[in-house]
Design goal:
With about 290 residues, the chain is an all-alpha fold. It has two domains: about 55 residues, Helix Hairpins (Orthogonal Bundle); about 220 residues, Cytochrome c oxidase, subunit III, four-helix bundle (Four Helix Bundle (Hemerythrin (Met), subunit A)), CATH 1.20.120.80. Helices cover about 70% and strands about 0% of the residues. It contains seven helices and no strands. The longest helix has about 40 residues. The termini are far apart.
Length: about 290
């Protein structure tokens, strides 16, 4: 197939720069967890990721606006986004799997139940329960208390569910040609996402200052921050993507039939919302 019928993107340095930026952030986070003094490296990594995302988005947008993409390229984008979301599903499945393994197998075994109940010989006074406020090893301090699911977690759940509704209305408005309506509902979605991020920050502050829920608070603290923390990062990324879509709508980009970038951002946001529902049920409620 020739380049006339299938657009071949020019060589790009953004993938390798993006990898370097993510690597800097991960090294910084790892160093921070171990030594507690990598704020500058974390900031550099995070800002580098934002810069790469911005410049990479710019190049793709310019190519799209020049009319370089055809139906085959559109299918490529759709398959790529589909596989990306599938990889994200597997990413969170691993963390949910760790949580279920601990709650369903490891803790009961340490309590003397199940096929490996002999593990109870290690800590005979251990009481198997979840949330695990008293880890079996006395050198590890569990949390003082846990969050009520019907306060901040419920507020955040309502915010994200509402944001999926507002984003769907915005998408339908775009498909019907109502650009002003699309813009307004999309702006509302961005506000809801920002509110979620703020409330999650408040919850983390409360966790450390008043509940004793930290990364050092046994398996409960570890699973809590891994699941809610990575989800929070996804919400931040999703909000930034929606901001980019809002700017494009304001600038007159997209049509009622050609707007896959907007549609892909909707896919991503709805996926993040569904993950949160799982978190709300299995981390906070059950």
């Amino acid at each position: 197939m020739s380049n006339a019928s299938y657009y071949v993107p020019a060589k790009s340095h953004w993938p390798i720069l993006g990898s370097v930026a993510v690597g800097l952030l991960m090294v910084g986070l790892g160093y921070q967890l171990v030594y507690g003094s990598a704020t500058l490296l974390i900031a550099i990594g995070f800002l580098s990721i934002l810069a790469v995302m911005g410049f990479w988005f710019r190049d793709v947008i310019n190519e799209s606006q020049l009319g370089l993409y055809d139906s085959q390229m559109d299918r490529s984008f759709r398959w790529g986004m589909g596989w990306f979301i599938f990889s994200e599903i597997m990413f969170f499945a691993a963390f949910f799997g760790a949580l279920f393994y601990v709650r369903t197998f490891a803790i009961p075994w340490l309590g003397g139940e199940g096929a490996k109940g002999v593990s109870a010989l290690l800590w005979p006074d251990f009481i198997a329960q979840w949330p695990l406020l008293n880890p079996p090893d006395s050198s590890v301090s569990g949390p003082d208390n846990v969050f009520s699911p019907w306060q901040l977690p419920l507020v955040n759940t309502l915010l994200l569910v509402t944001s999926s509704i507002t984003l769907t209305i915005s998408h339908e408005a775009l498909k019907s040609g109502y650009r002003k309506l699309c813009r307004n509902w999309l702006a509302g979605t961005v506000v809801l996402g920002t509110c979620f991020i703020f409330i999650q920050g408040v919850e983390y502050y409360e966790a450390y200052q008043h509940y004793g829920i930290t990364l050092e608070a046994g398996i409960f603290g570890s699973t809590f921050f891994i699941l809610t923390g990575f989800h929070g990062v996804h919400v931040i990324i999703g909000t930034l993507i929606l901001v980019a879509m809002l700017v494009r709508i304001i600038r007159g980009h997209f049509s009622d039939s050609q707007h896959f970038a907007f549609e892909a951002s909707c896919w991503y946001w709805h996926f993040v919302d569904v993950v949160w529902l799982g978190l709300f049920i299995f981390v906070y409620v059950v």
